[in-house]
């Protein structure tokens, strides 16, 4: 209707046709200084308006607010259909006394058996004390509420002394706690306790009135405007102790958030200081922190609890709900606080509240009758597959142990609900949203239809586990809509439509962070979700882990378990200086691996341009750079660190032992002779199965020997293949948006080379096995007559290419067809492959994702089947990263093994030229052609003779079996998704099983210093500019040579994440995202800093079908060993290859 989007009436929507589209909020992540600067700009009249307009446009807010016509009338408060009865429940009278309701709830619980809970058994699994444990201890006179109060007060005072400040309670009076505890103690002495909750310590969120404490809402000013004269209704029903809020840290990992906004409520329960707490939930604010802290959080049906006495009691989405350590405690507290307000009894007509009867023998039978709804695409849209896997495992156990059926459902219009809630108004103020957008009536229709098929909708609670707290966020704050979106992905329906929902802990990720599962029920059906949650807790979830910060206030020994911080195993102080111990004195057994995150904003498009303009303003630019350095402790590493070893300006390698089962190659021999020798080392070639047209065979790339066989057998010619190649490149170049593989390409030149090769084959005298093989050259390596631009728009104007680079001339002498200059990340200064000058090369396995960089074009053109091999450069992972992300093989040889003359980085101290190919054997052939040190490197480095593994010898297999593999487990597992570490771990297991390769646990010191210096100071390719006092290469070389006395090869994943998504705003201008850079380069830096050889070989795929690579790092000059192991992995351990989405068969022509 003109520019308006008119939605179909909800009754006419085909719900089965709804498509799930993962949505990511487009907004900058800002902390500290950046947030203050952003807020200042927002408050500037014109600039602020422009920024907000841009944000709304980027996230389609204007489109959804102003340009959408919804046929249904607005639904200002939830309008629920009549409730269906729930089986095997107890009904409660809302008008009954709270203590009577609690008593009835107590009768619903299974029998209590104190058993041996008071016997100290260090081998018993950890469990939280339940409310009934406290009641038993009080009644049995094992302790008193007053004794527990002293333990509590002592623990709170200890917690409040921490630096940085991370209080659990922000309004707290120890005398008031003692007064209440003494009164409870007297009641127990007289045998007249009020209920099972008597003497139970419960915290109250700072937006709920709890007299005489002020309600500040976590602000510094709210209490000045609003006086608290009495308890909120829910608090009066409990009448217990204290209040909370501020940047509370997660008890499971103090450097991570608890989630919000009921952060203190969840943390104080998870830390053992309170059995329960009250929170408010207007956008997941009970469920999110409960999930992240590993406790239970219940959001009841809208109107089930009385909101009077809250800061926003007039809202239409928020509720008061309990946070507890267990389901049974949630039931007891819920029973105490439930009861609608008089107004809501009239407007909502709530049925009688019910509780599940868990004491009956038919309780689990009722669980088995529950039908569970799962929207798989939504369910799996998580930050780490550990979350979806853990929740999926729970569904399988529920089916196996209780007979619960899971039904596939579809939920329409999640995108509108998600974007509207997260971007426009945040998590707690949805009542301010334009009612024409808050299309509650149509959403209610969709969900009512779904609830005709299922009883409970099941999702993860959050799409990520607890995020890290940025240090800069502690003093000023933070805005990170991407994290907000991940945390709130599954919680909105419970608030928008007022449904009951509960989060129950189900396990932990590999970092030990809790994972929660959410159950969303029909209106007023709290009993059903509580019953299922109890079944999950009792029979499906794994054992609980004791939080790092845990206090046992019941037994009287408040204990603070601090995580192992950065030990001073290698550092002492000298004034303001950090003085490193000599490398030979460092105790490697005391080294602790600490994951590090780069502190820098992620900016694309407009924000990136704006940042660049600011950085170029003289005063502001230096201020920004100083702030970045300070945030990342850059000055501490550069200026204030004393390294006792002399700087090592280029690698200095100790002598190496000879490798077994290899063939040595003369560097001075002709390239074609070296290739011929390498060819003799390969297993025998059998063409039989490659040309029989078997369409059922699994996908495989054509190898160089396949092309040579086809040419010699006259199945095709290099000229015929050239025409197919040219046609494919032209087709590729016409795509929109532009995503060129080659940025310098001359089809006539390709035809000329192909014709010459065809003639040589017709005459029976090809130059080598590489004759007629199509290869691309990265745009920072000279390949005459193409210019070398480094993917810039200007480099070719200041630097003329007069001849081939040495490595290129060696390929040309072997007859290789050099197709042109492959795209790359501009100047090699990046890890994604983004290039705003010529267009960003897309990943052949998923065109919406990066190839990795900086050798983006070489990796993509090989993975897409258009070239058998390509040359790239690697100064910071620029061969290995894109090879891993594109599912091909990439070799970084020892520094100095190849001659860098004729490349843009020929005077560096970390970069090499290396091959990218589809298979290990093709990598060996190309490597044999290009190897050979420069005259200068032969003098300074004294390289040993290059070798290739001899696969044709009898001792080849024994050589694999004798290899000792080094694995630094904590580093190995520090990945964005456990798909990566799991796949690489499986390869190690198969190597042991099939080849007898043993894995040895190792420790590598000072990874943090090395990683931070490399990523933050100069990016991925220019480490030669680094201050040598920080580039502590000599000590790092010492550490690695000590490791190589115990192992032959160090094994890691190649990257810490699979191919990242390309933000749309990054295509035209570019982006800066050092968090992604850090993930991609996590395992890369050692080989460049120390010049060690390394190879990446594909081993499988993640759940999204994206390639995963494993990296093998060898001793200096020992390329043969890593290539031998890579071949064994490729042949016997890796998963079958999948055909990329963008693939061209230029050999067969189909």
Mean pLDDT: 85
CATH architecture of the largest domain: Alpha-Beta Complex
CATH topology of the largest domain: Amidase signature (AS) enzymes
Helix-residue proportion = 25-40%
Assigned CATH class of the largest domain: Alpha Beta
Strand order of the largest sheet: 24-26-25-29-31-30-37-38-35-33-34
Q: Radius of gyration, Cα only, in angstroms?
A: 32 Å
Helix count from the secondary structure assignment: 43
Q: Report how far the terminal alpha carbons are from each other.
A: 46 Å
How many separate domains? 2
**Strand-residue proportion:** 5-15%
Biggest beta sheet summary: 11 strands, mixed
**Inertia-based shape:** elongated
Structural class: alpha/beta
**Uncertain runs with pLDDT below 50, 5 residues or more?**
240-247, 422-437, 558-569, 1015-1030
How many strand elements?
Answer: 38
CATH superfamily of the largest domain: Amidase signature (AS) domain
Please summarize what this structure is.
The protein is α/β, with parallel strands linked by helices and about 1150 residues long.
Topology:
Blueprint (H helix, E strand, L loop, with lengths): L4 E2 L23 E2 H11 L2 H14 L2 H6 L1 E2 L19 E3 L6 H11 L22 H9 L5 H16 L13 H17 L11 E4 L16 H4 L7 H6 L3 E3 L4 E2 L2 E5 L5 H8 L5 E6 L5 H7 L2 E4 L19 E6 L2 H11 L4 H7 L5 E3 L6 H6 L2 E4 L1 H4 L5 H18 L2 E4 L5 H12 L14 H11 L5 E5 L17 E2 L1 H8 L3 H5 L4 E8 L5 E8 L4 H15 L30 E4 L2 E4 L22 E2 H11 L2 H14 L2 H5 L2 E2 L19 E3 L6 H10 L23 H9 L5 H16 L8 E3 L2 H16 L11 E5 L16 H4 L7 H8 L3 E6 L19 E2 L2 E5 L5 H8 L5 E6 L5 H7 L2 E4 L19 E6 L2 H11 L4 H7 L5 E3 L5 H7 L2 E4 L1 H4 L5 H18 L2 E4 L5 H12 L14 H11 L5 E5 L12 H4 L1 E2 L1 H7 L4 H6 L3 E8 L5 E8 ...
Parallel strand pairs: 1-3, 5-6, 5-9, 13-14, 13-15, 20-22, 25-26, 25-29, 33-34, 33-35
Antiparallel strand pairs: 2-16, 4-12, 7-8, 9-11, 10-11, 10-17, 15-18, 17-18, 19-20, 21-36, 23-32, 24-26, 27-28, 29-31, 30-31, 30-37, 35-38, 37-38
């Amino acid at each position: 209707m003109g520019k308006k989007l008119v939605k179909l009436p909800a009754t006419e929507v085909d719900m089965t046709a709804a498509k799930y589209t993962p949505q990511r909020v487009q907004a900058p992540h800002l902390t500290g200084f950046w947030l203050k600067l952003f807020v200042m700009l927002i408050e500037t009249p014109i600039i602020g308006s422009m920024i907000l307009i841009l944000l709304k446009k980027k996230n389609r807010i204007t489109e959804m607010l102003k340009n959408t016509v919804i046929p249904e009338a607005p639904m200002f408060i939830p309008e629920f259909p009549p409730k269906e009865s729930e089986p095997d429940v107890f009904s409660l009278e809302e008008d009954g006394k709270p203590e009577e309701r609690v008593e009835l709830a107590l009768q619903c619980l299974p029998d209590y058996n104190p058993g041996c809970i008071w016997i100290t058994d260090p081998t018993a699994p950890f469990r939280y004390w339940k409310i009934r444990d406290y009641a038993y201890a009080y009644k049995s006179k094992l302790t008193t509420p007053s004794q527990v109060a002293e333990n509590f007060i002592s623990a709170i005072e200890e917690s409040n002394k921490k630096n940085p400040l991370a209080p659990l309670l922000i309004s707290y009076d120890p005398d008031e706690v003692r007064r209440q505890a003494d009164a409870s103690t007297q009641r127990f002495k007289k045998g007249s306790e009020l209920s099972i909750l008597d003497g139970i310590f419960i915290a109250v969120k700072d937006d709920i009135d709890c007299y005489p404490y002020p309600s500040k809402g976590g602000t510094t000013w709210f209490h000045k405007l609003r006086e608290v004269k009495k308890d909120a209704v829910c608090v009066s029903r409990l009448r217990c102790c204290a209040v909370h809020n501020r940047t509370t840290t997660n008890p499971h990992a103090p450097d991570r958030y608890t989630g919000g906004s009921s952060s203190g409520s969840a943390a104080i329960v998870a830390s053992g200081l309170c059995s329960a707490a009250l929170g408010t939930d207007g956008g997941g604010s009970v469920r999110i922190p409960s999930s992240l802290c590993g406790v239970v959080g219940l959001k009841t049906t809208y109107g089930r609890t009385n909101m009077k006495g809250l800061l926003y009691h007039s809202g239409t989405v928020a509720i008061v709900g309990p946070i507890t350590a267990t389901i049974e405690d949630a039931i007891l507290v819920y029973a105490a606080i439930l009861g609608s307000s008089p107004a809501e009894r009239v407007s909502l007509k709530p049925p009688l509240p019910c509780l599940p009867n868990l004491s009956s023998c038919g309780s689990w039978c009722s669980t088995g009758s529950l039908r569970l709804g799962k929207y798989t695409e939504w369910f799996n849209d998580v930050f780490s597959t550990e979350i979806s896997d853990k929740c999926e495992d729970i569904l399988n156990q529920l089916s196996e142990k209780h007979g619960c059926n899971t039904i596939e459902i579809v939920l329409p219009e999640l995108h509108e609900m998600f974007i509207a809630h997260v971007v426009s108004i945040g998590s707690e103020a949805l009542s301010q949203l334009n009612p024409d957008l808050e299309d509650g009536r149509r959403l209610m229709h969709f969900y009512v239809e779904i609830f005709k098929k299922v009883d409970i909708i099941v999702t993860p609670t959050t799409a990520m586990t607890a995020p890290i707290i940025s240090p800069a966020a502690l003093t000023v704050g933070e805005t990170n809509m991407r994290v907000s979106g991940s945390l709130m992905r599954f919680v909105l329906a419970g608030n928008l439509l007022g449904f009951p929902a509960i989060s129950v802990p189900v396990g932990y990720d590999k970092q030990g962070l809790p994972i929660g599962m959410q159950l969303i029920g029909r209106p007023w059906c709290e009993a059903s979700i509580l019953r299922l949650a109890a079944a999950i807790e009792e029979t499906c979830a794994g054992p609980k882990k004791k939080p790092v910060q845990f206090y046992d206030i019941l037994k009287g020994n408040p204990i603070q378990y601090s995580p192992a911080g950065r030990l001073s195993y290698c550092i002492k102080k000298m004034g303001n200086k950090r003085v490193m111990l000599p490398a030979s004195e460092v105790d490697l057994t005391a080294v602790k691996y600490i994951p590090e995150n780069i502190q820098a904003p992620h900016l694309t498009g407009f924000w990136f341009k704006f940042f660049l303009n600011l950085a170029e303003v003289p005063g502001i630019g230096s201020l920004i750079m100083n702030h970045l350095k300070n945030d990342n402790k850059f000055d501490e590493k550069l200026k204030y660190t004393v390294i006792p070893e002399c700087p090592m300006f280029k690698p200095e390698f100790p002598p190496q032992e000879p490798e077994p089962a290899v063939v040595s190659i003369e560097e001075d021999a002709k390239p074609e002779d070296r290739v011929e020798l390498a060819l003799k080392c390969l297993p025998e070639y059998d063409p039989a199965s490659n040309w029989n047209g078997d369409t059922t065979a699994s996908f495989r790339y054509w190898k160089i020997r396949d092309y040579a066989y086809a040419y010699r057998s006259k199945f095709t010619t290099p000229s015929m293949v050239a025409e197919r190649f040219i046609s494919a490149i032209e087709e590729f170049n016409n795509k929109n948006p532009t995503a060129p593989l080659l940025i310098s390409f001359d089809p006539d030149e390709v035809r000329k080379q192909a014709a010459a090769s065809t003639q040589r084959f017709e005459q029976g005298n090809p130059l080598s096995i590489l004759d007629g093989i199509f290869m691309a050259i990265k745009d920072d390596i000279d390949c005459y007559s193409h210019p070398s631009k480094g993917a810039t728009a200007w480099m070719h104007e200041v630097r003329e290419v007069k001849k081939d680079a040495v490595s290129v001339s060696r390929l040309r002498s072997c007859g290789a067809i050099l197709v042109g200059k492959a795209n790359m990340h501009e100047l090699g200064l990046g890890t994604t492959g983004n290039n705003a000058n010529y267009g960003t090369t897309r990943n052949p396995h998923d065109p919406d994702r990066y190839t990795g960089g900086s050798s983006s074009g070489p990796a993509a053109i090989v993975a897409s089947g258009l070239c058998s091999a390509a040359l790239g450069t690697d100064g910071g992972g620029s061969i290995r990263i894109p090879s891993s992300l594109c599912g091909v093989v990439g070799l970084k040889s020892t520094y100095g093994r190849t001659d860098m003359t004729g490349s843009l980085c020929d005077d560096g101290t970390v970069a090499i030229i290396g091959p990218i190919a589809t298979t290990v054997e093709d990598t060996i052939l190309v490597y044999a052609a290009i190897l050979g040190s420069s005259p200068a490197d032969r003098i300074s480095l004294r390289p040993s003779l290059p070798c290739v593994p001899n696969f044709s010898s009898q001792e080849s297999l024994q050589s694999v079996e004798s290899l000792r593999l080094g694995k630094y487990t904590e580093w190995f597992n520090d990945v964005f998704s456990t798909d990566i570490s799991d796949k690489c771990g499986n390869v190690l297991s198969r190597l042991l099983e099939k080849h007898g390769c043993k894995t040895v646990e190792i420790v590598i010191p000072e990874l943090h210093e090395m990683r931070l210096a490399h990523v933050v100071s100069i990016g991925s390719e220019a480490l030669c500019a680094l201050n040598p006092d920080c580039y502590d290469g000599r000590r790092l070389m010492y550490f690695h040579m000590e490791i190589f006395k115990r192992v032959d090869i160090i094994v890691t994943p190649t990257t810490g994440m699979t191919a990242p998504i390309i933000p749309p705003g990054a295509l035209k201008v570019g982006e800066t995202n050092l968090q992604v850079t850090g993930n991609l380069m996590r395992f890369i830096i050692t080989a460049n800093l120390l010049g060690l050889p390394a190879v990446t070989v594909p081993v499988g795929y993640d759940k999204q079908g994206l390639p995963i690579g494993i990296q093998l790092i060898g001793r200096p000059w020992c390329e043969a060993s890593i290539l031998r192991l890579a071949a064994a992995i490729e042949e016997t351990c890796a998963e079958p290859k999948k055909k990329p989405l963008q693939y061209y068969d230029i050999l067969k022509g189909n």
